[in-house]
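Researcher: Going back to the complex we discussed earlier. I've cleaned up the inputs and rechecked each line, so this should be the final set. Can you rerun the prediction on the complete assembly and write out the structure?
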Amino acid sequence: EDQVTQSPEALRLQEGESSSLNCSYTVSGLRGLFWYRQDPGKGPEFLFTLYSAGEEKEKERLKATLTKKESFLHITAPKPEDSATYLCAVAYSGAGSYQLTFGKGTKLSVIP
Amino acid sequence: DTAVSQTPKYLVTQMGNDKSIKCEQNLGHDTMYWYKQDSKKFLKIMFSYNNKELIINETVPNRFSPKSPDKAHLNLHINSLELGDSAVYFCASSRTQGTTGNTIYFGEGSWLTVV
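Model: Rerun complete. Updated structure for the full complex:
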């Protein structure tokens, strides 16, 4: 069973059409939930870290929220340059030493 | 300046060859990692080093051998390459291990194709 599940796998939005990406996790002892953005041919670029339920973080058109079992990445009025794959990852107790367990990502396409 | 840099970016080689990928970070971090991203884009950790000491060694074939000459460098050597080794390999680093507020930063990736 996957420990980190992201949905949807792919999302097409019109420019300006707000939406949310979901990341659900089944691990216990969460030490941090991370959002990364990955452009084609590039490495993951760090966006946010969330540590506890109820926490929110914002950056430009992106807002990340966390509950006890999932996180949402809200994209407000997206632009074509927001097109990328968004990766969610968790660090948790019992994962051995500090490491990230990733979901499979949501590929976002924003159409002009 | 690139924070985590790895070379080569692209590598095409024949089955059975031995190859190395080099990684350097200029962030002053103590911990470095190798992650593998397969054809389904799934990122999984392979190794982690803290101050040149191996701390994570996930289930990977022993044909893969990481080497850390100092805490700013973590190289990945692969012996007897197989078709299934084709993937993107990402080097990463973090300030330390196991600490709240510790972000992992990734390099640009090395695209390995075994033919």
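Model: Worth noting: Chain A touches chain B through 24 residues (CB under 8 Å).
Researcher: Good, that matches what I expected from the previous run.
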